[in-house]
Amino acid sequence: MVSQINRCSISVPSNIAEGSGRSSNKEFSYFIKVALGSLFELETQLILSNEFGIIKGETLSSLVSKIIKLQKMLTKFLTSLELSLKS
């Protein structure tokens, strides 16, 4: 489980970085979607860690609130990228 959490965590900034180096907003938006998927996966892994007693409730709450904030930020950014594709 720790390995999966590490992979999810690393995947988020890695996909954002890779997408930013692409030549179009369409390609960039694909990588933002992948990063969002990794954030949702990370959130799930942390919730399961709490269920298994690996992470305490207070720690989980703090981490999940930060993940949700990042999900919202990436969703807004994705929306702006997709709007630019339509113009």
Task: Give the SSE layout.
Blueprint: H1 2-20, H2 25-51, H3 57-86
Helix pairs in contact: 1-2, 2-3
Instruction: Determine the structural class based on helices, strands and strand pairing.
Output: mainly alpha
Overall spatial form: elongated
Radius of gyration: 15 Å
Beta-strand residue percentage? under 5%
Report the major sheet.
none
Report the top-level CATH class: Mainly Alpha
Oligomeric organization of the protein chains? single chain
- The overall number of domains is 1
Specify the helix fraction band: over 70%
CATH architecture: Up-down Bundle
Number of helices: 3
Taking the alpha carbons of the first and last residues, their distance comes to 43 Å
Q: What is the H level of CATH, i.e. the homologous superfamily? A: 23S rRNA-intervening sequence
Order of helices and strands: HHH
State the CATH topology: de novo design (two linked rop proteins)
The unreliable regions are: none
Mean pLDDT: 94
Please provide the count of β strands: 0
